[in-house]
Amino acid sequence: MDINPKRSDLGAVSARDLLRSYFGYTGFRGRQAEIIEHVKSGRHAMVVMPTGMGKSLCYQIPALETDPGRGELVLVLSPLIALMQDQVNALIARGIDATLINSSLDRQTRLTRYAELTDGKYRLLYVTPERFRKPDFLEALKPRTVSLLAVDEAHCVSQWGHDFRPDYSRLAEIRTLLGDPTTIALTATATAECRTDIYRQLGIDASDITLFHEGIDRPNLALEVREVWGDGDKLDAIQEALSHERYRGGSVIVYFSLIKTLQRFSDSLLSRGVDHVCYHGDLPREKRRRIQDEFMTGDADVVLATNAFGMGIDKEDIRVVMHAETPGSIESYYQEIGRAGRDNRPSLCLWLYDQNDLMTQMQFIEWSNPDADFYSRVYTTLTQRNEECRAFGLDWMNERLQRVSRHDHRLATAIAMLDRHGIVAGPRPPECFDVLGPIPSDFENRAHLGEKKRRDQQRLYAMVQFAQTTYDRKQFLNQYFLGDDPTDHS
After folding, report:
1. Per-residue pLDDT tens digits for 367-392
2. What is the pTM of this model?
3. Which is nearest to 80 in space by CA: 134, 129, 132?
4. What angle do CA 243, 247, 251 make, to 5 degrees?
């Protein structure tokens, strides 16, 4: 049964009424109501709000006031397929006419949704920005009027954001294709410099977009950094946190940077009688989904995970979030600890700081920042040795391109970036061997590539400063994200 209100039925139905009817809340948090009225009046908004504080309501409530019969639509750009699937499932369960279109759909389902979209179905549509590469999607979207464009995880827009996605850099072009709709950008993590770059990428002058910054403080979260030396110290600290009386009775996430470290700690914890499950990107998709479901239902209380685990995890009773290895940036650290204590009960965010872990993150920075020479050699190999690339695969390419370490991941980064910029046909064989065009000038610009690497190094150094600060760590985070110098306490 369609319980969505028709435009003619809205009348005196207020945003608060819709909040109560569909989401069961009696009132808005913080500045949610102000943000909703702001975008409903046709004004752009940049929303920086802590994880779990209800950013999505700022575009979901306006979507309930659209009239699909007149072609109106709220379009949400989201970076992760799993995240949008969880959000859409939750909306459908509340009787809200929402859907997604992404690469997880089979061809027939995708075509059916295209037809339904054209015919005026759906108030909310979730897509990745990559979907705008598809002419058939643009054709299906043509009859609709995007009344509000929501850019979720907006830090992905910025080249300085901690999870940069090249297709997000097409936002200004996408907005033009959509008729420059009212736009709301939302994130939990964006420094002042990142926000400035987001405005530029959106094609919106800073004077035309209003910043709603809710701060980053979560009073119920205890932020602790414990300096440790080696695995033994870490294992003792993990067990101590798991048995802490104040934080018992809920779920626990222990984050690792490397899968091999996670597996080593898993063996050690099992030998100590600590029951847990493990989640990382090398597991089959079905197993990852099963583990996530077990965690969400409470069948698994403790999960050891890489940062592949977490996006879309909306569980209220996570009592402890631990980092057993050093995170790569303040942004990723804050994103991950934001999953703790969403029920507002006391929760522990514990980082086990071993200086030796910094080497791992420094290696990640090297891998994620190939230089101009490496991009040139990759492109030359793809074009001049294409038959051999196809015959012998990426391992053969990697062996030819570098001989320092077989674990060097620069080739994977380079192929992914070439794919995202449309230079090759896909991120994996055989599509990654189909060269579609010349290498962009940005990949030949040493200064541009060097600046990106320097920024990554700065973010890692900020983690060291955070660990060593003698001042309030929440104050440090507020200063970091609001644009002040966290080391200036004058």
Report:
1. 989 999 999 999 999 999 999 999 99
2. 0.80
3. 129
4. 90
